[in-house]
Amino acid sequence: MKYVNYGKTGLKVSRFGLGCMRFPDNEAEAIEMVRYALDHGVNYIDTAYVYQGSENITGKSLKDGYRNKTYLATKSPIWNITTYNDFEKYLDEQLKRLQTDYIDVYLLHNLGFDNWQKVKRFDGLTFLDKMVKKGKIRHTAFSYHGPLELFKEVTESYDWEMAQIQLNILDEFYQVGTQGLKYLAEKGIAAVIMEPLKGGSIVNQYPPEVKGILSNYPEKRTLVEWCFRWLYNMPEVSVVISGTSTLAQLKENLDIFHKAECNVMTTEDLNLINRIREAFEKKKGIDCTGCSYCMPCPKNVNIPEIFKLYNSVSMTDSFIDGWTYKSSIISSGAGADQCINCGLCMTYCPQNIVIPENLKKAHSLLLK
């Protein structure tokens, strides 16, 4: 495993970090996966309060000496904060879930506009300072989905040690993009990358043209490897987090990151990525990563699955996904036709998708 400096903290972290949002349903398999990662050089684990069941499973995984093998990162549920005291209340709950006395890297979760206003209103930055003094957290950080201007405001408001941003081959200019990445490097702030495969959609739902582009390129690599290679090529990237769901996926990722070096992409390689991106843009889908923050819907609309089916149809022109929508989603009462346009889902969507409008679009296409 390759290790790099983690901003100005003095930590040495693995360039691959295990994301714990997409654990398999089987708890024993999830624990095996975490421990396999730590046994094979990974020393960075990322979870969050809102990842259902994740902190409890991660805590069980880190027993028997495994806690000493990792830098543990988790995130404060800003959505739930209504008073200053809530910050520490939830942190203490997380410490119990994770079965530890301290968090190595504690993030204020998803500091878009609304959450950032809440942090300022309830003095969340003072909370961070106090928790460092108490020894409950060691390093301060935030995750972010949103425009570059607000990102700079958040970054300049506190002496952060890390920022976690969304970046992948399709999002070079989306949200803060590579411009935000370089901004962090100038500040000496560690940059952790989330959604490197956009929730797996890049490698699971791609236009047929991409297969031809890859097969005709002299250097043979999988699309997964090209996605990761594009990221670890950039020296400004500290850790790339991938939320694997199976041990096989984890092993594939570890094999890729054992060869992770900066500045390995040639001009021709970068042009290849541009061609892949252009193929995706010609069949633009909905920017859903399947994180399920929008769920549960009060009307039981299965938002992530509907958008997944829509993107599959958009990318591949497959009629099977439309059939699945009608025979499974609609028939179970979870179709987009149940949406009442309440907008609750949009409160939590990190991609800022206008969900009700896109549900109507997806419903129309999938019925055809």
TrEMBL record:
Pfam families in UniProt: Aldo_ket_red, Fer4_9
PROSITE patterns (alphabetical): 4FE4S_FER_1, 4FE4S_FER_2
Supply the source organism's classification. Answer: Bacteria, Bacillati, Bacillota, Clostridia, Peptostreptococcales
Domain 4Fe-4S ferredoxin-type residues, every copy: 330-359
Q: State the UniProt keywords alphabetically.
A: Iron, Iron-sulfur, Metal-binding
By its UniProt entry, which InterPro entries does this protein fall under?
4Fe4S_Fe-S-bd (IPR017896), 4Fe4S_Fe_S_CS (IPR017900), AKR (IPR020471), AKR2_Oxidoreductase (IPR053135), NAD(P)_OxRdtase_dom_sf (IPR036812), NADP_OxRdtase_dom (IPR023210)
MF terms per GO, please? iron-sulfur cluster binding; metal ion binding; oxidoreductase activity
Identification of the protein by name: Aldo/keto reductase
